[in-house]
Give the backbone structure.
Amino acid sequence: MTKQEFQKLTQKLLLLDGATGSNLMAKGMPRGICTEIWVMEHKDIIQELQKAYVEAGSRLIYAPTFGGNRLSLASHGLADHIEEINRTLVSYAKEAADGRAYVAGDITTSGKIISPESGYTYEMAYDNYCEQIRILNEAGVDCIIAETMINIEETLAAVDAAQSVCDLPILCTMTVEADGSIFSGGNAIEAAVSLEGAGASAVGINCSVGPDQLISVVRNIKENVSIPVIAKPNAGMPQIDDQGNAVYSMGPADFARHMKVLAENGATIIGGCCGTTPDYIRETARLLNLISDVG
């Protein structure tokens, strides 16, 4: 997808998919393992989920390449398998989409903060993202999404990396508190302005909190940028049950109702994060009268 095609696509509401990780854990994925390897070994489970999102109305689904960068894979002793992992997982998503939805190459934070104290530099982040994005581009994704980002500087490195190795649109979402503040400092509005200036095709927020807590954040981002605004929140605030599982407070109908409010306040690319399922996307598509056909 060219950046011009992306601009045309986002002239109306674009529906993303919902959560991946929380649904995989519900299907038996253990904690603390390399998610990408587990997904490679359970193709049927990830494709069942992604096909359900497409059926529910998603027009852009995320390839399950979230932690597929060299730094993250190295913590599992898998750095040398980066190309195989990313290419395989993109192929799974493209098969599941079957031409009915676009596929985003999903990247995320390394978990490190760029600072003199950490020893993690912009150059290290840039090189880390260049490698993964190059593979994702060659594997045939339609765009790149940098999601659940916790550091503005690292996100800027991802945008610069994307623009240096491909011509695909690069979308960015920070994870924020209800007041828009970012874990490592700064806020979502500052980040959005900086990212637009760096060349991002869309900016916004994902994860952290429910859609009911993000109205002012979305509105303020919209008022400060000229590119599309993304909202991909959790299914409300989680509570931990006796088994240590996160239980989210918001059902599909309430989630969809609040997503409609976010759309009315400026979000034009919407979906769900932790705790959401195809039912949440289906209800959102129904309430907002969205369709799933590509084109």
